[in-house]
Write a structure and sequence with these properties.
- Helices cover 78% and strands 0% of the residues.
- By secondary structure, it is an all-alpha fold.
């Protein structure tokens, strides 16, 4: 408990995970049910799921490269960005909140591509926002399809409100894109300028199309991981339900206030696939835990890059301290 803010975040995530487990017990199931599902897992399916997850990380690296190119950077090596993506995923498993892993990723971008620390941080922030907005666009379409299918209406209403609010925020960004605003506070000026620059970037049709397609491919990739794991665990989940609810699952589990989505992901799996997907609560939790494990296994190549570069680790620690210091970094 030396760092109370991050400890509270980790505690909140753990509480949600415990809540999911208690729901299993409340429905008459036991931990043995969970263990049985894992024991019947197909090893070949797990290997395939890891490979697909690596592909998902590659798509995420491609999105970051698209954002960097749209911001005016040239000579961006996709393999370099992919390597940074894998390292940041590995670092995230040792950080109590994903925001700390984002600091490491921004620092690596600075060191690799010679940009300012503020600009690198802005690229990482843009990447998170664009991933969420892409999920919102796909989620609105998925919710529209769900409208004609049987399912809980409260969950459908929540999705419509969430996606509509997200897309409304996007519309505001596009409206104010390129606008300049000045206040008496320098840090506020930087934030406002960065937000308006993002709106200006998203207003470029080719960039918006690329980022939208990227989000769709990434969500389909996560859906494929889920379906491969379900097949390997002999869980009779509906492929259509997985695809339709994946935007919501991705959005909730990607919130930076949770430790790599643990707890939140299990809760949303129970509310969606466990509620209307025709599978038991234990199967929903087992599937969610499986995705978390796949994310970890897919990050192991990043561990190799991390361990082989002690000088890089030292520079990241020094530059990360500068990035996290208040008032440091410029756009």
């Amino acid at each position: 408990m030396k760092n109370r803010p991050t400890s509270w975040v980790a505690l909140g995530s753990s509480v949600l995970l415990l809540g999911a487990i208690f729901m299993i017990l409340r429905k008459g199931q036991t931990f043995d049910d969970l263990l049985t599902i894992w024991q019947r897992s197909n090893k070949l399916a797990i290997l395939l799921a890891v490979l697909v997850m690596l592909g998902v990380q590659f798509v995420a690296a491609l999105r970051l490269k698209t954002i960097m190119r749209a911001d005016g950077l040239s000579r961006i090596g996709l393999l370099s960005v992919f390597r940074i993506q894998l390292i940041s995923q590995f670092v995230a498993h040792g950080a109590p909140i994903s925001a700390l892993a984002d600091i490491a990723r921004a620092t690596m971008l600075k060191l690799r591509f010679g940009m300012s620390i503020g600009r690198a941080g802005r690229m990482v922030a843009y990447d998170r926002v664009c991933g969420a907005l892409g999920a919102a666009a796909a989620g609105l379409i998925a919710a529209s399809v769900q409208y004609g299918l049987p399912g809980p209406q409260p969950l459908l209403k929540i999705q419509f409100l969430l996606w509509s609010g997200s897309l409304l925020a996007t519309a505001v960004l596009l409206w104010f894109g390129g606008t300049h605003a000045n206040t008496r506070f320098d840090i506020l000026n930087r934030i406002v300028r960065a937000v308006f620059m993002l709106g200006e970037m998203l207003a470029v049709r080719s960039v918006a199309i690329k980022l939208t397609l990227n989000a769709v491919i990434q969500l389909l990739g996560f859906s494929a991981v889920c379906l491969v794991l379900a097949f390997g665990m002999h869980i009779p989940v509906s492929p259509l339900q997985v695809i339709l609810y994946m935007p919501l699952i991705f959005f909730v589990s990607s919130l930076p206030i949770f430790y790599l989505g643990w707890g939140a992901r299990e809760a949303i799996f129970i509310a969606t696939l466990g509620g209307v997907g025709g599978i038991s609560t234990a199967e929903a939790v087992a599937l969610s835990l499986g995705i978390g494990v796949m994310v970890f296994l897919a990050s192991l190549p990043g561990a190799v890059f991390w361990l082989l570069r002690p000088s890089m680790r030292k520079q990241i620690a020094e530059a990360g301290s500068a990035l996290s210091a208040p008032g440091v970094g410029s756009a």
